[in-house]
Specification:
Strand content: 15-25%
CATH architecture of the largest domain: Alpha-Beta Complex
Strand order of the largest sheet: 2-10-7-8-5
Radius of gyration: 26 Å
Number of strands: 22
CATH class of the largest domain: Alpha Beta
Shape: elongated
Number of domains: 2
Distance between the termini: 28 Å
């Protein structure tokens, strides 16, 4: 295999083919400068792995943004966080062009036909680079810290531009599929939630026109307390040092934490946060181990699991905090909440509407997981040159414009 030449960002900077810019000083950008709407500012919390995290943005008025024109970002810029998550970076694209880099960020701008910025971004996502960054930035410090000198030392494989673009095109195709799947999942989830609200919040369920109502409740619906609707149980202890790798997901308060060789609950498993993080509700279609940070539905009492899932999602569980220091869900309060339970016939009709949507969601999630694993396996092989791409007939995805 032919050895791939490497180049450092500092090498590019020394010949005017790259520039580095630290974010504005505190005297240039103060907390009082932020407004409710305007030009977005990218702070360290907005930096992901190659992408900008667009939640929790802060904004500047256009006039203030103009004064910080040297900190305006353009498509192709790469932004690092200077404190904390130094292994992350964001590649600026057309949707974030013109935004402002925050005080806690550092920007690299490449201006040469020797480097494809998207290829460089993929190199920065390799575990080898991230480990190098963590080791260098954390040396002798309690919090990882990044500066221009460290960025100048970043050295990456630099095959011909055509090869870089081909590599970026292959990996972008996976990212585009993953992003498209996520958008479709979000739309399907909203569709299912809207059906729930239409049927059980607005009470426009099938046949509601002919239904009789007493005090705003359809006749035939049962008045119960939540604890009679389903049974919630505390999850199970599982210390990290007792986890044995296996096929069964270990479900924490907000997501699957890891996988174990044993399970404690049959699917569908409905969980919500018991301590630490409250409000989120998950449904898992595998045998799984609900952790002690969760409450899980141990018994549906014959009710629809989908109805229970969406009822929990719209109960505002974050407001049931009974903990002083650590947020803790007050299960006794929850169990005592009165509710009206629809007849089983309506619940079955709801299942018939919702089940196909959830099957599509699970299929898309499986496709996303497969694409993610494939991309992550290809990434180091493509970047290192172990997997040649020059002979491949590659179609450039829509997210990449052919130069």
């Amino acid at each position: 295999m032919k050895e791939v030449p490497t180049i450092a960002i500092g090498d590019l900077e020394s010949v005017g083919q790259a520039s580095l810019q630290t974010g504005p000083f505190g005297t240039q950008l103060k907390a009082s400068d932020y407004v409710s709407d305007g030009i977005p500012v990218i702070n360290v919390r907005n930096i992901g792995f190659g992408k900008v995290r667009k939640a929790d943005l802060e904004f500047l008025a256009e006039g203030k943004a103009e004064k910080l024109h040297q900190h305006r970002l353009v498509a192709g810029d790469i932004v690092f966080g200077r404190k904390g998550a130094v292994e992350r970076h964001a590649l600026i694209d057309a949707t974030t062009d013109g935004w402002i880099q925050g005080s806690d960020c550092l920007r690299v701008r490449v201006n040469t036909d020797r480097v494809c910025e998207k290829y460089l971004s993929y190199y920065l996502r390799t575990s080898a680079h991230q480990d190098w960054m963590q080791a260098l930035c954390s040396f002798g410090a309690t919090m990882a810290s990044l500066n221009q000198d460290i960025v100048r030392r970043i050295r990456f494989p630099a095959p011909p531009l055509k090869t870089q673009r081909r590599i970026a095109a292959i990996l972008s195709a996976y990212d585009d599929l993953i992003e498209n799947n996520r958008r479709r999942i979000a739309l399907l989830e909203k569709m299912a939630e809207e059906i729930y609200r239409e049927w059980f919040v607005r009470l426009r369920f099938p046949g509601h026109e002919q239904a009789k109502f007493e005090k705003g409740v359809p006749v035939g619906w049962l008045s119960k307390k939540f604890g009679e609707f389903c049974k919630l149980k505390r999850g199970y202890d599982l210390p990290d040092d007792q986890v044995v790798p296996g096929p069964f997901p270990v479900v924490a308060a907000t997501a699957v934490k890891t996988f174990h060789n044993q399970f404690k609950a049959e699917p569908p498993l409905i969980t919500t946060g018991r301590s630490g993080s409250l409000g989120g509700v998950l449904i898992t279609y595998q045998r799984a181990w609900p952790l002690n940070t969760t409450l899980y539905v141990q018994d549906c009492y014959g009710n629809s699991a989908f109805l229970i899932y969406y009822t929990l999602k719209f109960m505002g569980l974050e407001s049931f905090n009974a903990g002083a220091g650590v947020p803790t869900l007050n299960r006794n309060h929850l169990n005592g909440i009165p509710m009206n339970v629809p007849p089983r016939a309506i619940q079955r009709a709801f299942d018939e509407q919702i089940a196909p949507i959830h099957r599509q969601i699970e299929s898309l999630k499986a496709s996303t997981d497969l694409a993610t694993r494939s991309r992550d396996a290809l990434l180091p092989r493509l970047i290192s040159g172990k997997l040649p791409v020059d002979a491949l007939d590659i179609r450039f995805p829509s997210s990449m414009q052919l130069e």
